[in-house]
Amino acid sequence: MHLQHIRAQNFRAFGDGTSVPVLDWRLNPGMNILIGENDAGKSAIIDAIRLLLWTTSFENVRLQEQDFHVCGASRANTLVLEATLRDLSPSQEAAVLEWLTYEADGSRSLVLNLQAKRQPPQPGRRARIDAITRSGRNGTGPEIGAAVRDLVRATYLRPLRDAEAELRPGRQSRLSQILGAHELMAGQDKSDFDPANPMVLATTLVGMMNQAQHQIGGHQAIGAVQTDINDNYLSRMSFAGDALASQVRIIGDASLTQILERFELSLLPPKSVHANERCPRGLGYNNALFMATELVLLRTGDELALLLIEEPEAHLHPQLQERVVELIQEPPLVNQRPVQVVMSTHSPSLAAGAAIDSMTLVHAGRTYSLRPEETKLARTDYEYLRRFIDATKSNLFFARGVAIVEGPAEALLLPAIAEVAGLSFSKYGVSIVNVGDVGLYHYARIFQRAAAAEAIPVPVACITDRDIVPDIATYVTKPKNGKPRFESDYTPAAAALAVTRKVDRVEAADDPAVKVFVSDQWTLEYDLATTGLAELMFIACALGQTEHSKGERLAEADEKLVLASAQAAWPGLKAKHPVATELAAVIYQPLYEKDASKAVTAQYAAKLIRTGNYGTGDALLQALPLYLKHALRHLTGTMDPAPAVAKAAA
Prior knowledge:
about 650 residues, alpha/beta, six-stranded antiparallel beta sheet, six-stranded mixed beta sheet, 18 strands
């Protein structure tokens, strides 16, 4: 049995389907990872499941007034939650026979439908919430009974837990609840201790405790203290016919609950510390211990094997996050059945280690599954991304805009340009992903949907070089195979077709969010040098060349000397090469010939651009190559300011 589908209407971020979409999410039988920015609706999805199925911890999960969706100044008065569970075993179906829903294909499902109504608050009284959970779609079946509840509870790991406190002994401690719920605890609440044969070892927990109590009561020291209290003190306080007496006991009542509430669970100390010594461990390892303890509940009985876990990365370093996600993706089987997992995360490290098709992007209260049938990703794309997505690239899953670039120069320089131009990537929530020389279209397809109506409203800009060499760059050699490489090798139509093919490999006419931006001339650096940033690129290249020749990072004094020398040489270079393309070719030559690192040069260019000496705001934006300007506008959802209207002469 697994949770196949969850639906929510008028619940928190999810509306009634008119102006705000409902939650309508189809789950994988195995791993389901909810990713996305804060306040997108991930926790609401997990809470909807908890409210419907309840949990193995038997915590009190109740609807609150704030759970009803708010649109503008109006709060909904009703909400509906509905879960569909499929693939029940014969024994599971037999246990809940009267609540089953018979499908058109002859199969059977268990559908739980919760309908709640909010009674508006009256003066001096809070709002009252009336809720009922029935079976069947739209709640047309009988009310859910105890047999269903016992079968479908989910195991829930809440976020930002105090793991050490949760595992301490105490009244209603989480450890006592976990131990008490384990199937092996059946019968442990019965005492098998026989006072007539005290030397026969008891086997149940309550029996063992009674046997220990019996032995302690007969201990010489304990007995002496007990006699002293009773004979010398309590007896002298007693009234005739009402003698006071006491007994020293381990606990007040040898019930299983009180026994379990005395237990604690803690990690053994490191190898350097004796095992019997108490040694506090870090938050991360205690968190891992708590998760392992909760997972024990998934290995009991014939119940639903569903784990709900929020932010498992809490307090865990990246390598431990990777170990945890490996366990969660392939947990031990429950009675030879796999465990279904619904997990939310904000961790790029955790997302990088997970399968793409197990993810669901949650954005503005809407879910976008990344399963093959719901995206334009091919099977080969999934295999490629599984190999090459790392923590630096997986931040694209949490962004409000994604710039996909093919080299370190763009990754280093574009954020600086955007910041100084007033379109800060940080402010607009844009992530930049450097995918290297190939594979750009693999990443772009993550955001492309199989159906146009499901387009993800996250702007994606794929920024790539035109790669047609201007004829002025005479230092570039012609290929021996005769393939076209230079501008003169192409007709205008053929050059336009080459660019179109780059665009068409990624773009889809029905997906306006994913766009390709091809350089206007040749490469990023060359195009910057043909526009208003020629001096910037010349100085950055000079700094990059000097560092390359020295083989080490320039000291601050050396950097200032090279900067001053390049600034002094700039007017002469510009006068010698008055044509913009000719000047750009000269500036770009050391980068092409690898006399300067593109990444290092981009670092210097980013540092220079942040001085503001090469333009700021819209002035800088207008100085950029058109393709970069358009890419930045697309990523940030901004438009060019309207041109100023000249006033009529008086």
